[in-house]
Amino acid sequence: MFIEAGPPPSRSGDAHRQLLICLVCTLLLAYLFAGWESTSWIVAMDQAFFSTFSLITQKSWAMDTLIVQMFRTNTAKIVPLLGCIVWLLFEWRRQGRSLAFFGQLLVGSFLAMSLSRVMQNFSSYRPRPLHNESVEYQLPFGIHNGALEGWSSFPSDTSALAFAIATGIFLASRRLGIAAFLWVAVVVAFPRAYAGLHYPSDLIAGALIGLLCTAGAAPLILSAAASRVRLTVDEKWMPLLWTLGFLYMFQLGAMFDDVRAYGSFLKEVLRF
Q1: According to the model, what pLDDT value does residue 12 have?
Q2: What region holds the Phosphatidic acid phosphatase type 2/haloperoxidase domain (predicted)?
Q3: Residue pLDDT, tens place only, 22-36
């Protein structure tokens, strides 16, 4: 389904590139993880962002609302990316090309969301900018002071998931991939910092997680699995597999909000 016959790739070169991506992203992520509260340039970068945009916020209700509320809807954030994926799937299948990028995207996005949530839940607590009294920032119109109160800020799981998807698109089409990265940077990442929900360093960390998982970890995992298990799928099971793929993409479009709600419910239940 997602990995079809095609011209044999240079496995050794691909593996080395994927390992290099994993190594570089992991080192950068670890640096951010260890230094977000103590490294001077990271603190200065975050403060510079809020100092700059404090001059712009609350100047226009329409602009603030567009950035803070409209751009933060799942329809604006993720659905255009899913549209690119669907187009690529049909176009590549029509051309008889491998759909391996879709497998990497599915695995990478799942890893990115999981890793970012684990880091956010189990690392040291970082208050959101709008809840941090040391951050001098005039919040824009349309954001409430109590938004995401009690939720740690680092890293941004939204950024991680969106950049993981954009990376998968880039693997299939450079032009669409560049457009996807620009979309994620402008429509997904920037509004979260503008709204005071994240520091820029949170969003950069999320981007590194997305790149790490889709371009580095996912192909290594799939290659390792393919070398050990020879899986052939009967054609009669294809409708089921595509249905599962559609349901997973639906969750991507909803930013896994339902899944996270179920998880929070189970977490509360298991406490008793």
Answers
A1: 56
A2: 104-218
A3: 777 777 777 777 766
Cα(248)–Cα(59) distance, integer angstroms:
40
Exposure string of 17-27, with b = 16+ CB inside 10 Å and e = fewer, is: ebeebbeebee
Provide the 10 A C-beta neighbour count for residue 112. Answer: 30
Taking a C-beta distance cutoff of 8 angstroms, is the pair 190, 159 a contact?
Answer: no
Q: Return left, alpha or beta for 256; rule: phi > 0 is left, psi -120 to 50 is alpha, else beta.
A: left
In the Cβ-directed half-sphere of 75, how many Cα atoms lie within 13 Å? 2
- Do 81 and 255 meet the contact criterion of CB atoms below 8 Å apart? no
| Residue 12: CB atoms within 10 Å | 8
Q: Is 67 helix (H, G, I), strand (E, B) or coil?
A: helix
Backbone φ, ψ for residue 97 (5° rounding): -95, 160
- Give the phi and the psi of residue 251 in degrees, each rounded to 5: -65, -35
Distance, CA of 92 to CA of 172 (rounded, Å) = 9
Per the structure block, which two tokens stand in for 189? 């990442």
**Rounded Cα–Cα distance for residues 249 and 83 (Å):** 10
No. of H helices and E strands in the chain?
Answer: 13, 0
* H-helix or E-strand spanning residue 165: helix 157-172
pTM confidence score:
0.82
Q: What residue ranges define each of the domains in the chain, with the CATH number in brackets?
A: 14-270 (1.20.144)
Distance (Å, rounded) from C-alpha 162 to C-alpha 207?
A: 8
Distance CA 44, CA 56 (A): 19
Spatial CB neighbours of 181, under 8 Å, sequence gap ≥ 6: 163, 166, 170
Q: In 3-state terms, what secondary structure has residue 142?
A: coil
Contacts of 79 (CB under 8 A, 6+ apart): 253
pLDDT in tens, 75-102: 888 889 988 998 998 887 777 777 778 8
